Amino acid sequence: MFVGDKILITGAHGMVANALVRELKMQGFSNFDLVTRAQCDLFDRKQTIEYVKKSNPAYVFHLAA
Question: What is the pTM of this model?
Fold first, then answer.
């Protein structure tokens, strides 16, 4: 992973996601797309695909529970 890469993280308000963001920030990463349920309902396949295409991340961490 490169510091400028866009990282999409689902479950943005969860404990694990918060810990991951803190760790990545300490390593110099700052280009995050932190997804909440209000932004994208991950149970809706079409909405999820559209959101990921729009976001165009280099990496995805799926941490939504």
Answer: 0.88
CB atoms within 10 A of CB 43: 9
* Cβ atoms within 10 Å of 38's Cβ, excluding its own: 8
| 40 within 8 A of 51, measured Cβ to Cβ | yes
CB 8 within 8 A of CB 55: yes
What 3 state SS string does 7-65 have? Answer: EEEECCCCHHHHHHHHHHHHCCCCCEEEECCCCCCCCCHHHHHHHHHHHCCCEEEECCC
Condensed to tens digits (0 to 9), the pLDDT of residues 46-65 reads 999 999 999 999 999 999 87
**Enclosing H/E stretch for 5:** none
Instruction: Give the tens place of pLDDT for each residue, 24-45.
Output: 999 999 999 999 888 999 999 9
